């Protein structure tokens, strides 16, 4: 039975690029320091009042146009985000309403940076079960609210002043994580492949809640009553914490072994994969995965330098760019791979 395949893609990032030098105005860092540790040169940030469904709306319009269909042909939405507008409802119904297709099922998933391999397996199952014919998969994250600085006008380059000592020190304490993230959205339209041998082939997915503290937000949750207090905010417990070195090692080990296992299950040699579309978390991780799998550099492209880590959006943004640049084409075999908070990780195979 033919699997789900991508028939349209689009992406959107808000505002003007924010270069590394702009972050150095509000914390102790530098362009050289950030590039050496992450490969990132710039990122984009949403403005006040701009949520993930707003970014996803723009990406979805482009994906629908690319697929040559109207929004009314979509009969299911899968929305991946870890930064929703609200604790509830999820962002999927908001996107549906903004597209003018309220009333169709809209499912939010929470696998963070690892969302796309999960979304592909889910979409494939829905299509094969006959529960949907045209699925819009959106991934969008707005990390601006996590950023540890107050002087947004300085970061955005519209003001130039000395930063208060305590504000500078606070931002510097969180710089290891703050320099990584950017905001953006991607959307993909999925339908059953017309080729019985094409589309989604398989996925291997994993989770390990025992390692949740490798990347998590320690406060603002429902172990506390109430779930948010002034004391939690004062302690910066609403900001993410990351065990960087151990997370890097785990990502390289788990992603390389998962890709090998998935290809073995499908009877494929790694050399048969035309392109490895990896989550853009850190260039050091992807280079290490590339080396572990002995993949030629041209087969594992990167765009993290321009966008940073946009979490659920990274794979979709990269896929859209690769398709529009003609670097992946009909008939190509793609391997999507990602690890995110949870921990969740996995890989998926799809023939376009």
Largest sheet strand order: 1-7-6-4-5
The chain-level structural class is: alpha/beta
- Give a count of the beta strands, DSSP E runs of length 2 or more: 13
Largest sheet: 5 strands, mixed
Average of per-residue pLDDT values: 97
Radius of gyration, in angstroms, nearest whole number: 20 Å
Distance linking N and C termini: 15 Å
Name the helix and strand elements from N-terminus to C-terminus, one letter apiece: EEHHEHEHEHEHHHEEEHEHEHHHEE
Number of helices: 13
Overall body shape: globular
Q: Strand share of the residues?
A: 15-25%
> How much helix, percentage-wise, in residues?
25-40%
Uncertain runs with pLDDT below 50, 5 residues or more? Answer: none
Describe this structure in words.
By secondary structure, the chain is an alpha/beta fold. Helix 3 packs across helix 4 (91-98) and helix 10 (244-265) packs parallel to helix 11. The longest helix is centred in the last third of the chain and has 22 residues, at 244-265. The chain has helices at residues 20-23, 31-38, 52-67, 91-98, 115-129, 152-155, 165-173, 175-178, 230-234, 244-265, 283-293, 304-307, 314-324; strands at residues 4-12, 18-19, 42-43, 76-80, 106-109, 135-141, 184-192, 199-207, 215-216, 241-242, 275-278, 333-340, 344-351. Strands 1-7-6-4-5 form a five-stranded mixed sheet. It has a four-stranded mixed sheet with strand order 8-13-12-11, with helices on both faces. The radius of gyration is 20 Å and the shape is globular.
